[in-house]
From TrEMBL:
The keyword Zinc-finger does not apply. It is an enzyme of class 7 (translocase). Residues 297-307 have a biased composition (Basic and acidic residues). Pfam families: COX2. Subunits I and II form the functional core of the enzyme complex. Electrons originating in cytochrome c are transferred via heme a and Cu(A) to the binuclear center formed by heme a3 and Cu(B). It comes from Haloechinothrix alba. It catalyses: 4 Fe(II)-[cytochrome c] + O2 + 8 H(+)(in) = 4 Fe(III)-[cytochrome c] + 2 H2O + 4 H(+)(out). GO terms for cellular component: membrane. This is cytochrome-c oxidase. The chain crosses the membrane at residues 58-81, 102-122. It is found in: Membrane.
């Protein structure tokens, strides 16, 4: 049988096999693990709230892919089997206008899909933004150009002030938090709008100078599920050194967190002054400096042009 005599079915069969092979190759050469593929590009979070948002993203993507496959299939089916053939009289194919069942199907199904997506989006949002009346840990986040101060409202220094840590030219501010405890954050700014963002939380909230006047809550809560060091950033353009306004979240065990607050609540015998965060972490045998980001030189004249 010559090439011209081969049936369209055999050509489409070869095209289908080639498409499947191309899909398998594209999937394997990306180097993604099975878990990463199931997340559809969603980053791995460290809080239950992040996992809820990941599930919403995954199932929404699956639904979108199902709809896409159906639409692509109908398009290809129309192209393959309803093309104008040699010898056709040129008459239009059978028309379906005024087909009430088909029109109802095309209206009702999309509406149902939107309602289902809306329902799961709203329920996930309510769950992520849910707050306990009395969280285990209360943190006040104070943002200012171009630094952060973190106040632990559940513990006091020998001076009677809340335990706090603030960054300097040499030290990145480190927010020490416990795992497996509910944490409440209260955000405020002393100057312009900033934004509190920890990528592993998969959550971002703007920090306004006057919380009572903004259009969103200035509080949120979460629970960190695993220990580690996670970079934090300001995600709102706030001035010259916005890109350098970083901090670090240091998630430790509940026992280590209690030890940290205990050290911060008393005087360092070596210095005769209250412990700083780097001193307390060093006394606990933990890295005293941020591991995920580094301070910057604020002297712009110290830098050389790159080109």
């Amino acid at each position: 049988m010559t090439l011209k005599e081969r049936s369209p079915v055999s050509r489409w069969s070869r095209a289908g096999k080639a498409s499947v092979l191309a899909g398998i190759v594209a999937l394997t050469v990306t180097g993604c693990s099975a878990e990463e593929v199931l997340r559809f590009g969603w980053p791995e979070g460290v809080t239950p709230q992040a996992e809820e948002m990941r599930q919403l993203w995954t199932w929404a993507t699956v639904a979108a892919l199902v709809v896409g496959v159906i639409v692509w299939g109908l398009i290809l089916w129309s192209v393959a089997f309803h093309r104008k053939k040699k010898g056709d009289s040129g008459e239009l194919p059978r028309q379906f206008q005024y087909n009430v069942p088909l029109e109802l199907f095309c209206v009702v199904i999309p509406v149902v899909m939107v309602c289902v997506l809306f329902f799961f989006t709203v329920t996930t949002e309510f769950s992520v933004l849910d707050e306990d009346e009395d969280p285990d840990v209360a943190i006040e986040v104070v943002a200012f150009q171009w630094n952060w101060e973190f106040r632990h409202l559940d513990a006091e220094t020998p001076d009677g002030e809340p335990v706090s840590t603030v960054g300097s030219t040499d030290d990145i501010p480190i927010l020490v938090l416990p795992t497996d405890r509910s944490i409440g954050y209260e955000l405020r700014s002393t100057d312009v709008i900033h934004s509190f963002w920890v990528p592993e939380f998969l959550f971002k909230r703007d920090v306004f100078p006057e919380p009572e006047r903004n259009n969103q809550d200035n509080t949120f809560q979460n629970t960190i599920e695993r220990e580690g060091s996670f970079v934090g950033r300001c995600a709102e353009l706030c001035g010259t050194y916005h890109s350098m306004m970083n901090f670090e979240v240091r998630a430790v065990s509940p026992e280590q967190y209690d030890e940290y607050l205990g050290l911060m609540s008393r005087v360092n015998e070596e210095t005769g002054r209250p412990y700083t965060t780097p001193q307390a972490l060093e006394a606990m045998g933990l890295p005293s400096q941020a591991e995920t980001t580094a301070p910057f030189d604020p002297d712009r004249t110290a830098r050389e042009p790159s080109g």
